[in-house]
């Protein structure tokens, strides 16, 4: 009996830890140090994204990327928005750019949506996130 309880607790603990893999990813903010204008566009995009105004967010994140193409967070945020709009080819392009610009940024490269769009997620991860394959 004790062994069964231990086994059940281990399974529940594992599921609880894995549920973090399917957590919703939101847009990332940046400090306005190297490119204040791009950071401002990004911040406006985050506000619109959080309000569900995808087209407005897309325009602001695109402005941030155009102002500073080396800003990984802006690419990531634009990719999230393109995903929301169903533009998965564009999302993949900007997820890839974000990962190339910031390969050590865990918020980007370990996010499920990033991994799904770039074909890096396991079958189990795809299952947890709703089976997405883009």
Shape: globular
SS strand fraction? under 5%
Helix content: 55-70%
CATH H-level superfamily title: Tetratricopeptide repeat domain
The span between the termini is 45 Å
Structural class: mainly alpha
Give the SSE order as H and E letters.
Answer: HHHHHHHH
CATH architecture: Alpha Horseshoe
- Total strands: 0
Low-confidence stretches: 12-23
Q: For the report, how would you describe the main beta sheet?
A: none
CATH class wording: Mainly Alpha
Q: Helical element count?
A: 8
Question: What does this molecule look like?
Answer:
The protein has 134 residues and is mainly α. It has one domain: Tetratricopeptide repeat domain (Serine Threonine Protein Phosphatase 5, Tetratricopeptide repeat, Alpha Horseshoe). Helices cover 67% and strands 0% of the residues. The N and C termini lie far apart (45 Å). The relative contact order is 0.13. Residues 1-22 form the signal peptide.
Q: Main traits of this protein?
A:
TPR repeat; repeat; Serine Threonine Protein Phosphatase 5, Tetratricopeptide repeat; 8 helices; 134 residues; mainly alpha; TPR_rpt; 0% strand; single chain
Task: Briefly characterize the structure.
The protein is an all-alpha fold.
Q: Could you outline the blueprint of secondary structure elements for this entry?
A:
Elements (H helix, E strand, L loop, with lengths): L1 H18 L16 H15 L3 H14 L4 H13 L3 H14 L4 H4 L2 H6 L5 H6 L6
Helix pairs in contact: 2-3, 2-4, 3-4, 4-5
């Amino acid at each position: 009996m004790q062994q069964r309880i231990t086994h059940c607790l281990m399974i529940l603990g594992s599921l609880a830890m894995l549920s973090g893999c399917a957590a919703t990813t939101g847009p990332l903010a940046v400090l306005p140090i190297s490119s204040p204008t791009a950071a401002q566009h990004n911040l406006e995009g985050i506000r619109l994204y959080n309000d569900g105004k995808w087209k407005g967010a897309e325009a602001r994140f695109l402005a941030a990327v155009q102002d500073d193409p080396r800003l990984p967070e802006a690419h990531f945020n634009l990719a999230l928005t393109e995903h929301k709009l169903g533009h998965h080819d564009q999302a993949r392009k900007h997820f890839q750019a974000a990962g190339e610009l910031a390969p050590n940024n865990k918020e980007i490269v370990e996010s499920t949506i990033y991994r799904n769009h770039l074909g890096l997620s396991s079958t189990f991860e795809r299952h947890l996130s709703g089976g997405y394959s883009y």
